[in-house]
Amino acid sequence: MSDPVPERLRAALGRFATGVTIVTARAADGAPVGLTVNSFNSVSLQPPLVLWSLALQSRALPVFQTAAHYAIHVLAADQQALAERFARRDVDRWAQQPWQPSAEGVPLLPGCAAVFECRSRSRYPEGDHVILVGEVLRCRHDEARAPLLYHGGRFYTGLPT
């Protein structure tokens, strides 16, 4: 067993397949904010709670530190390009991206496998990330849409290439 140096730890964690999400909110000036996240998990059914984590060096951190609401979108297999765009820093993630506001004004993306509309409940700084826990106010899913997966640094769609 080797010590968990960052490179080795990242490689070992990469052996765990995850879903791919985009988390969205509105900045104080009303601008939509969103980023690709694969650290999403359920916490509790009663009350309905989910969590995700955000790097402390993320430019979106100030928005999510103060946002009262956000939405977590579980991406569908055909949304890999969307995941890649929202993971990049050098593009306008919202250019020509359709969305509708939730009841609380949070940007909701179309075509996702599932969407969780959340009220921010708590934040826990841990290591180089902050863990955000949200109370699910509303959720929906589309059983016909297979999820986009991420494993070992690669996307898996289950779609023919």
TrEMBL record:
Pfam families, alphabetized: Flavin_Reduct
SMART domains linked: Flavin_Reduct
Domain annotation Flavin reductase like: ranges: 13-157
Listed EC numbers: 1.5.1.36
Residue ranges of the TM segments: none
PANTHER family per the UniProt record, alphabetical: FLAVIN REDUCTASE, FLAVIN-DEPENDENT MONOOXYGENASE, REDUCTASE SUBUNIT HSAB
Record-stated family: Belongs to the non-flavoprotein flavin reductase family.
Official protein name in the record: p-hydroxyphenylacetate 3-hydroxylase, reductase component
Upper lineage: Bacteria, Pseudomonadati, Pseudomonadota, Betaproteobacteria, Burkholderiales
